[in-house]
Design brief:
Layout: H1 9-19, H2 29-32, H3 36-46, E1 76-78, H4 85-91, H5 107-123, H6 132-157, H7 180-194, H8 212-227, H9 251-264, E2 294-303, H10 305-310, E3 322-324, H11 326-329, H12 357-362, E4 363-364, E5 369-370, E6 373-374, E7 398-399, E8 416-424, H13 425-439, H14 451-463, H15 474-488, H16 495-501, H17 505-508, E9 513-515, E10 517-521, E11 524-528, E12 530-531, E13 534-539, H18 554-559
Antiparallel strand pairs: 1-3, 2-8, 4-7, 5-6, 9-13, 10-11, 12-13
Helix pairs in contact: 1-3, 3-5, 3-6, 5-6, 6-7, 6-8, 7-8, 8-9, 8-13, 9-13, 13-14, 13-15
């Protein structure tokens, strides 16, 4: 039987409904799981729940398009500023527990996905026409999907109701929240249970399925979160064991590092590394063949909607939704391995020269080449807003990552694959470095002597064309890793979670974001970083303390009276 690729998960969903007048999960299991094709189609449907919605424009929709989630952080702004109500809920502090009060809650959706995972796991033994090897793989996939969804809930809400079996709707549905510790332990157990059932690699036609590396990688991410300050030595006032550990434990950093090593040291059957960084960085999100960096991703298929939503607004059919902030621009080092402010050779009038290679593949600026012309973010340029309240570049810089210059957004249109990264090997390398740096030593002035920390960080930096680092103190390494995570995963929805787990959101997200004033006189383009001596504020931001944990939706509290709301909501 020809294998059905997960590239067609949505098609599989539609087909399963066509083959069966009722959804598979509502059919008698001895019928629904009897046919191997139906079983695989049902497992394929689980992939549709990975990062649901339009991954690249998740907040909001409509004629102006949705927004990148990083627009709620210090990395980006949505344009026109404050014109996206769902972004405003985060940046202006109006998030709430109502039905429309939190566009990132996903509570019902997460538990729907978990239920589908449990349907597979509870009924897979009815699949008498499926080989044991294939059955084990399905069990591994469903188990890891279940872990992913539980973690999505944990990182939003803290401790959650654990759904280990299909909920009997005729029984007691008032399921209390487990503690944060119990919730984390459960997800880690699911990862360990799934890993041996999954292969290290699939054939190309099954690119994107969950692997053993994905299981170990998710385990590492979960344990990194669990070791972080928010849940240990620096909890939010008023939080309880539902939101954090009862007491800190320094050993948790070692658990995260050890889990990351399970990915780093993982080998294929021929002895080759199961995962590696993909080169070049500029093609990472558009290439499937030979790409062993992606561990978990949401496959978008062939599209150019990303380009239409986020390409500079002066191009036909482009909306220019996402502007990069000066805060992000200033995080990219020069080729000398220095921040712009510290490099005597840096020219602020040419901020794009001699920079980290990730800069020019992530950021658009005046003069950058795209689709047959130069980008014009200067005042009066084609990509500058023609008037107040309309789309156009207001920071001087725009998002380039996820925009493929090989596409076309005008007739004849040309599409390409856009695979949304959820977890990739670069993250695993930086997880190990961060966790071991925190574990090895107690004082910030202690020297970093663990060589593998440097190896992991420098592997990521080498791809970016940056010199290796050495001889750092523990505090210097922490600062470097935090910055590396910001630039490596810019526009990948890592920043918001990182700032919260580090307990830095109340500072970083509670202040203005900035841009530059770009002007053109003749052929000369000028960057002004201040006006009348003041920095150029694009938007004031707020981050209330209670935002560290999302409110449980009121509709869920009404349905499940055993739930306890998070503090201060």
């Amino acid at each position: 039987m020809k294998k059905i690729s997960i590239l067609f998960a949505s098609a599989a969903l539609a087909s399963s409904c066509a083959m069966n007048d009722i959804p598979l999960e509502n059919m008698p299991p001895e019928i629904a799981f009897r046919d191997s094709l139906r079983v695989e189609m049902f497992v394929n449907e689980l992939y549709a729940y990975l990062h649901t919605g339009q991954s690249y424009n998740r907040l909001g929709s409509g004629g102006t398009g949705g927004s990148m989630f990083d627009c709620v952080t210090d990395l980006a702004v949505y344009t026109p500023v404050r014109n996206q109500p769902e972004v405003n809920k985060f940046t202006q502090g109006t998030l709430n527990a109502s039905a429309s009060g939190n566009p990132d809650a996903r509570w019902a959706e997460i538990y729907q996905a978990i239920r589908k995972c449990n349907v597979v796991l509870d009924n897979i033994d009815y699949a008498v026409n499926v080989s044991q090897e294939r059955k084990n793989r399905f069990i591994g996939e469903a188990t890891l999907h279940k872990a992913i969804q539980h973690f999505e809930a944990i990182r939003r809400f803290g401790g959650i109701p654990i759904m280990d079996d299909i909920l009997d709707m005729t029984g007691d549905i008032n399921i209390p929240r487990s503690t944060f510790e119990a919730s984390v332990k459960y997800v880690v157990e699911l990862c360990d249970r799934a890993a041996p059932l999954l292969p290290t690699r699939y054939a190309d036609n099954d690119y994107g399925r969950l692997t053993r590396g994905a299981a170990y990688g998710l385990k590492a991410r979960v344990l990194l979160y669990a070791a972080s300050p928010l849940y240990n030595e620096n909890p939010v006032p008023g939080s309880t064991e539902l939101q954090r550990y009862a007491s800190p434990d320094h050993e948790r950093w070692k658990y995260a590092a050890d889990a990351a090593l399970q990915v780093i040291d993982l080998k294929n059957s021929d002895g080759s590394p199961a995962h590696s960084l993909f080169r070049p960085y500029s093609r990472l999100f558009f290439t499937r063949a030979g790409n062993y960096e992606s561990l978990i991703m949401k496959q978008q298929g062939l599209t150019n909607s990303v380009e239409k939503a986020n390409g500079p607004s002066g191009y036909q059919n482009a909306r220019g939704n996402t502007n990069a902030t000066l805060e992000l621009v200033n995080m990219y080092e020069t080729k000398n391995g220095l921040l712009p402010a510290d490099d005597p050779d840096y020219d602020p009038q040419k901020p794009y020269e001699n920079r980290d290679e990730r800069f020019n593949t992530s950021i658009l600026y005046s003069g950058a080449q795209l689709w047959g012309r130069s980008v014009e973010t200067f005042e009066g340029g084609m990509d500058y807003p023609a008037s107040s309240g309309v789309k156009g570049c207001v920071t001087g810089f725009m998002m380039y990552k996820h925009i493929d210059p090989q596409t076309s957004i005008v007739s004849p249109e040309k599409t390409t694959y856009h695979d949304w990264p959820i977890l990739r090997y670069a993250d695993v390398l930086l997880i190990y470095a961060e966790a071991m740096n925190e574990y090895m030593g107690m004082g910030d002035d202690d020297p970093v002597t663990e060589e593998r920390i440097y190896e992991c960080v420098n592997e990521v930096r080498d791809r970016a064309g940056l010199p290796p680092v050495s001889g750092l103190t523990r505090g210097e390494m922490r600062t470097l890793i935090h910055r590396e995570r910001a630039v490596e995963f810019a526009f990948e929805e890592s920043r918001y979670g990182d700032l919260k787990r580090w307990r830095e959101a109340e500072v970083v997200l509670n202040r203005p974001v900035h841009g530059v004033k770009v002007t053109k006189s003749g052929s000369e383009i000028r960057y002004d970083y201040t006006v009348d001596g003041d920095s150029i504020v694009i938007e004031d931001r707020v981050f209330p303390m209670k935002f560290y944990y999302y409110p449980i939706p009121q509709s869920e509290l009404d349905k499940n009276t055993a739930l306890v709301q998070n503090p201060n909501w």
